[in-house]
Amino acid sequence: MSKRDFQVNYTAKCRLCNHVKKDNAPENFAVLRQIAVNVLGKEKRVKLGIKNKQFLAAMDNNYLARVFGLG
Predict the structure, then answer these.
(1) Where are the alpha helices (DSSP H) in the chain?
(2) Largest Cα–Cα distance in the chain?
(3) pTM
(4) How far apart are CA 36 and CA 13, in angstroms?
(5) What is the pLDDT of residue 70?
(6) What is the distance between the alpha carbons of residues 66 and 63, in angstroms, rounded to a whole number?
(7) What b/e string do you get for 34-64 counting C-beta neighbours within 10 Å, with b at 16 or more?
(8) Residues of the chain where predicted confidence (pLDDT) is lower than 50
C-alpha cells in the first residue's frame, strides 16, 4: 500500500467515523465515506486539507452545494 493509499484510507476511517453495526450498514457507510473523501479531495477551489474541507462543508451550506455541483 502506497503512502497516498494509506492517507486516503486513514482519512476515510478516522475523520468520518460512524459506529454502524447492523446488517449491511457498515459496508454501505464505508462506501459513502470513501465517496465523501474522494469528492472533497477533488474539490480544488478551496486550498484546504480534507479535515478542514469537511468542517467547512458542515458549517457552510453554500460550500457543500458547490462541492456536489449544485451551486
Answers:
(1) 3-10, 25-42, 50-59, 61-67
(2) 38
(3) 0.61
(4) 12
(5) 82
(6) 5
(7) bebbeebeebeeeeeebeebbebbeeeeebe
(8) none
* Per-residue pLDDT, 59: 93
**C-alpha grid cell, residue 19:** 459506529
AA letter at 3: K
pLDDT of residue 10: 55
- Grid cell of 39 as nine digits: 469528492
DSSP classification of residue 49:
-
Task: Answer for the pair 40, 53: CB distance below 8 angstroms, yes or no.
Answer: yes
Cβ atoms within 10 Å, residue 5: 9
Residue 6: its pLDDT value, please? 54
